Amino acid sequence: MQLKNIKIQEDKNRKFFDFWSKYYDKGFGIYLFDIISNTLISIKIKDNSRILDIGCGTGNLLYLLEKENKNLELYGIDLSKKMLEKAGKKLNKAKLIEISAIILDKKFHKEFFDYIFVVDAFHHLPNHKELMRKFYKILKKDGMLIITDFDFGILFNFIFHLIEPGNSGIYTKKQIKSLFISVGFLLKKQKKIGLFSVVNIGVKK
Question: Looking at the whole model, is its pTM more than 0.85?
Answer without folding.
Answer: yes
